Amino acid sequence: MKHIKKWVLLSAFVLVSSLCLAQDVTIDRSYSYWGVRAGYMEIDNMEDGGSANLGFTSGFRFDGPFAIEVSLDYHTSEFSDVDRTTYALQASLLVYLAPITARVQPYVLGGGGFYLSGYDYWTDSGYRRTDFTSHKFGGHLGGGIDFWPTAEVSLTVDVRYLFLQEDIPEDSVVNINGTIDGILATIGAKFRF
Asked: What is the pLDDT, as a whole number, of residue 85?
C-alpha cells in the first residue's frame, strides 16, 4: 500500500501545481477523445507487490460536467504460486468539477467492468495448469485530473478502486477465492478529435 501513497501524493502535487497554472483553454463545448495510459495495479493483501498496467481509452465529453468513457486495460500479476493475466473492459461515467474551458479539470468517476482473467498455477497433484479462464463483472470508483496544455491534448492522472470477486479452480495450491479489491493508478494522455 506504500506505492499507493506515492501515487496519491504525486496526484496531489500535480493538482496543486496545475492550479497555479490554471487558465482557460479554447475547447469545443463537447468533443470525442481517445487516449493511452500506463500505470500500476495492486490487489489488496494478495499480490506479491504491484504490477504494470497498459491501457487505451475512448470517450465523449458532453457540453457540461459529464463524460462517458470506455477503456481496455491489460495487466499481469503474480500471487505466491499463481500468475494471472487480465484484460479489463471498463465503462465509466466521469463528472468534471471544473468548466469545460478550464485548463485543469479534476473529476470523479464510477462504473463497471468485465474482467477476463487467465491463470497459470500449481495444482494439489503437483503439475502446472494454464487453461483456466475467469469471466467476472466488477465495479469501480475513483477520480483524476485532466490538464490541457493545448486544446487538443490533455495529460491525465487517474486513480480507481476496483471491487472484484474471483474464483481460482479448486485444485489450485493457493486459494484466493473471494474479494480481490485493488487500486489502479495510471498516467496518460487524451487526444481530442
From this structure: 80
